Amino acid sequence: MIKVDNLSLTYGRGDRRVVVLRDLSFHLNVGEFVTIVGRSGSGKSTFLDLIMGLIQPTSGTIERRKKNLSIGYVFQRPALLPWRNVLRNIYLPLQISGISREDRRRMAMEALEKVGMGYAAHYLPFQLSGGMAQRVAIARALVQDPDLLLMDEPFSALDPMLRENMNVNLLRLWQRTGKTILFVTHSIDEALILSDRIVLLEEGKFLKEFEVDIPRPRGYETFRTERFTELNRIVRAHLPIQPNMPRIPSEDEDGVSDE
Amino acid sequence: MLRNIFLKGLGFAGFMLSIWLAWHLIISIFAPPAWLFPSPSMVYQRFTELWEVEALQPHLRITATEIVIGYLLGIAGALLSGYPISQIRLLEKVLTPYLIAANSVPLVAFAPLLILWLGNGIEAKIVVAALIVFFPATISTITGFHAQSPIYKRLMRSLRASKLQRFLYLELPSAVPGILAGMKIGAPLAVVGAVVGEFLGTGLGLGHLILEANGLMDTPQLFVAIILLGMIGIVFYMLIMALEQILLGPWHNKKRR
């Protein structure tokens, strides 16, 4: 569906030149669920922005195999407009595309049903919990029936239990709709439960790619399987320890050395 | 909603009643002469006298016209200039210090100049009211248009919204609280602007009625004019509050909680 070749992005010039992404090559097949795992500031969200076409690369190419590939985007925060009710938030993309009033209401309602929130059509965003709001944001991204869904750490603000629940719900949704999903997270657990493939991104470079061979369908019990634990250990082993992170000295180290 | 309006109305009635009682109390304790501090009944009597001979209505009409037109012009000017200023960084950088400076100058000081330029008619008073409303409302409008979170801008970009769509679906609605704040600040200022304009000339308007009553030591008439001005201000403010409720509704109620 998408093929990325030698993609680089730099900001500034001369001494102020900052390399955000360097020489990334990547492909995404139709119907695949791929997750990019990386720390904060590793360039994950920027990569999604490039795929979306919101920014242009400094060098390299992004080849879309389909003309007019439609893309839905789910952000880290739900970004629901607070003055619009749930239904009107969901049909915003349709309104922007010029779809008629009746059609957009029908399509928005269908998308809302897909995320199991048909009952909340007339709620205002402040009446929703974090998980509900993010489900509405997913429905908004699905409303135009996009070929590709980009998800930028959509559950990172949720508590761990709710996050697990959202992961399982997303899996069910993905199985039902067959969408191609490119997901970004810093949680290895999340990446393992969801994906067919995991790509590790560190300081703007792809470090390693893993096939996730945990059988589907996956659910809550998958978190407790041996294969899940084993893959978790393997992926973690490839994550470099950050050398510049400040640390608290241990008891046998002299924390005050200037005297 | 209805319960809310009823409670607010009840609160307002209670407030007015306590002022009326306090007024009576002052009269009965200190017994001041009528030319210094008339009783409520004397003021009411003067009001009915003036009303019956239609001595109040033309003044009330003219002042209300000045306030409403001046206010609307000031707000329209604030909206028309606030949006481009908020969008063009250079314009904002250059103009904001002057807007703030102009807002700190007592604009009523310009009133004599405006009367000199525009004559003694209604026009000069409308311009004074409009000017006095314009500056704070513009600053509020600019703040309002800056009030969007970057994530919404990103959302609009990802949805490939046109400039007009961004304005209609994001920028304008998110600026509404700021614009309404400016409108609320502007409402009493429009009353001040119109009355100050009237103080400086013309034979019409509640400001003129105040000056006339002062000259004749007709203190009950002075009170009638002041109370009427206060009532215009309150009605005006309540209309804007109603507009706020219609435009922002439950979203705003949540924000205030």
Automatic annotation (TrEMBL), chain A:
UniProt name for this protein: ABC transporter ATP-binding protein
PROSITE patterns: ABC_TRANSPORTER_1, ABC_TRANSPORTER_2
Keyword Ribonucleoprotein found: no
SUPFAM superfamilies from the UniProt entry: P-loop containing nucleoside triphosphate hydrolases
Keywords: ATP-binding, Nucleotide-binding, Transport
Organism whose genome encodes this protein: Sulfidibacter corallicola
Keyword ATP-binding attributed: yes
Span of domain ABC transporter: 2-228
Pfam families reported for this sequence: ABC_tran
InterPro entries xref list: AAA+_ATPase, ABC_transporter-like_ATP-bd, ABC_transporter-like_CS, ABC_transporter_ATP-bind, P-loop_NTPase
GO molecular function: ATP binding; ATP hydrolysis activity
Record field: transmembrane: none
